[in-house]
Amino acid sequence: GRITTVFPLMYGCSKFASGVLVDVLGSRTILALGLVASGTINILFGTQSALLTLAILWGANGFFQGFGGPSCAKLLTTWYPSEQRGTWWAAWTTSNNVGGFIVPLMVGSISSTAGWRVGMTTPGVIALVAGVIVYFGVRNKPKSVGLPSPHEKSYSKQDSDRSPAQDESNASPSDIVFKYVFPNRAIWALAFAYFFVYIVRQGMVSWSHFYLMAEKGIPDAAQASATVSGLELGGLVGAMVSGWLSDKVQGHRIRVVMGYCLGLVLALLAFRFAPSGNQAVNAFLVAAVGFFIYGPQMLIGLIGAELSHPVAVATGNGLLGWIAYLGAAFAGEPLAILVNQFGWKYYFLGMISCCALPIILLAPFWNARKYEDVC
Fold first, then answer.
1. Which of 111, 263, 283, 311 is spaced 20 to 30 A from 233 at the CA atom?
2. What whole-number distance in Å separates Cα of residue 22 and Cα of residue 67?
C-alpha cells in the first residue's frame, strides 16, 4: 500500500516541474531522459527486496514517468496544425489505454513463467530502448528538419496560432511561470475544471462497483468489476470522438467540453434512476458515463496547451496535470463520507455538482481558441 501510494503523488508533482524543464530544454531531451530514467529504475526495482528501497524507487519512477505528458503536449502543439490537433491528441491519449491493456498481459505472462523480477525488468529494457529512439529520432520543431511550421496553416490567416517570432522566444523559467502561466486566467479555469472532472472519474472508478452491488442487483464483485470495465471502453470511444469533433467545429474545443459535461450529467442521472436487475442497461450506462468523462479529460489538456503562451505550453500542461491529480486524490475521503454517512443520493448529487462546475468555470471562455483570445 505504501509503495502504490507514493507513485501517483510523485507523478502528479513532476507534471508541473517537468513542464518547466520541457519549455526550457526542449521536449526531446526531457522525454528521452524520463524514459531512460524510468527504465533504469524498473530494472533496479527488480533487484531489490527492502520495502523502503522499493518505495523510494517506485516514487522516483512516478516522478520520471511524469515527464511524458508535458513533453508530448509540446511536441503535438508544435508539429500539428489546429485543424488536426484534436484527432492526433486523442490518438496519443488513447495510447495509454492500449498500453494499459497490453502491458499487464505481457508482464503477467513473463512473471508467471520467469518470476516478478524479470517481469519488472522487461518493461524497463523496453523503456531504455524507447528513450534512445526518442533522443535520436525525435526533433523539437519541424524547422529543425527543414519543414515549414504547421502554425502557418490554421483555420484562417487571422486565426494563426503562433507567430514565428513568438516560437523563437527564449524565456527564463521564472518568466515562464510568473509571466506567462500564473497570470493566465484560462489556465486556472481549465485547471479547476480538470480538478472536478478527475473527481468524477475517480469517483466512478472507486465507487461504481459498490453501487452496482448495493443498488442494481449485481450479486458479486466479479460481475460488478466486469460491468465497470465498460467505463474504459466507453472512455476510449469518447476521447476519440471528442478529439475528432473538436477539429470539426474549427477548434472551439471548450464548447465540446461543456457539451460533454452536460452529457455526463444526463448519463449519471440515468445511471442513478435506471431500474435494477438489468445488467445490459447497467453496462451501457457505465460505458456512457465513461464516454462523457474521458472526452473532457482528454480535451482539457489540449485546450490548456493551445491557450498557453508558445514558450509556456509544457508548463501550462504540467500545471493542469498536477491539479488534476489533486482532484483524483481529493475524491477519496469526501466521496467516502457522502456514501457512508448520507447515502448514494448525496454521492450522485456531489458527482453531478462536479460535472456542472466545469461548465460554469469555462463559460467565460466560450469563444477562446488560442492564447491571444485570453491574454
1. 111
2. 8
At 219-233, the pLDDT tens digits run: 888 888 888 888 988
How far is the CA of 117 from the CAs of 46, 65, 110, 122, 223, in angstroms? Answer: 4, 20, 9, 9, 32
82 vs 244: CA distance, rounded Å:
12
Q: Which residues contact 347 (CB under 8 A, 6 or more apart)?
A: 203, 207, 211, 335, 338, 339
Distance CA 115, CA 117 (A): 6
CB 353: neighbour CB atoms within 10 A?
A: 13
User: Which residues of the chain fall below pLDDT 70?
Assistant: 1-5, 151-169
Q: What is the spatial distance between Cα 77 and Cα 67, in angstroms, rounded to a whole number?
A: 16
The model's pLDDT over 22-50, given as tens digits with 9 standing for 90+, comes to: 999 999 999 999 999 999 999 998 888 88
Residues 6+ apart with CB under 8 A from 342: none
Name the 3-class secondary structure at 33.
helix
Q: What is the pLDDT at residue 341?
A: 92
Q: How far is CA 326 from CA 10, 152, 188, 238, in A?
A: 11, 37, 14, 23
Q: Which class for 222: exposed (0-12), middle (13-18), buried (19 or more C-beta within 10 A)?
A: exposed
- Taking alpha carbons only, the member of 164, 185, 160, 167 closest to residue 370 is 160
CA distances from 4 to 37, 39, 52, 62, 174 (A): 19, 18, 12, 10, 33
Number of residues in the chain? 375
Q: How far apart are the C-alpha atoms of 306 and 82, rounded to whole Å?
A: 9
The cell numbers describing 61, all together, are: 519512477
